[in-house]
Design goal:
The protein is mostly helical. The protein has one domain. It is 83% helix and 0% strand. The protein is built from three helices and no strands.
Length: 139
């Protein structure tokens, strides 16, 4: 009849394992982005970056929850998990840098192409206008 209250608050070890799983997932997804970064359109890359951001937000929530619990009794197992999380986080930062550098490069290339196109159109209009004026003068 009486149910025991079950403590549903996860312990530090389970939170760290969730964090590790999340970091692993976002890292694998990010590595797939890097493999295809040259062939994907910018819109697809932007969507992938937004998707990654959702994973990162989830990781930040887990970290905040972990800090709430506190790292009072961190055992050897938890310390190893934290070290693995740190390694994955460093790799993720490096991949972030590559992704954003590639997006920046593509953006600059697009802007340069657009500026060159506008300059060519202006040059074409200017030269056409001058030749028309010269034709009128010559007649």
């Amino acid at each position: 009849m009486f149910q025991e209250t079950i403590n549903t608050t996860p312990d530090l070890s389970s939170i760290l394992n969730q964090e590790l799983d999340s970091f692993t997932s976002v890292l694998q997804f990010s590595e797939k982005i890097i493999e295809q970064i040259d062939t994907l359109p910018i819109s697809a890359l932007s969507q992938m970056v937004e998707y990654r951001q959702k994973w990162i937000d989830q990781i930040q929530e887990l970290e905040a929850f972990r800090k709430k619990i506190g790292d009072k009794a961190v055992g050897e197992n938890e310390r190893l998990i934290i070290q693995n999380i740190s390694k994955l986080a460093r790799k993720l930062v490096e991949i972030d840098e590559q992704i954003y550098r590639q997006l920046q490069s593509r953006k600059l290339k697009f802007v340069k192409q657009h500026a060159d196109l506008i300059a060519a159109r202006r040059q074409n209009k200017t030269s056409n206008g001058l030749s028309n004026r010269m034709d009128i003068i010559q007649e």
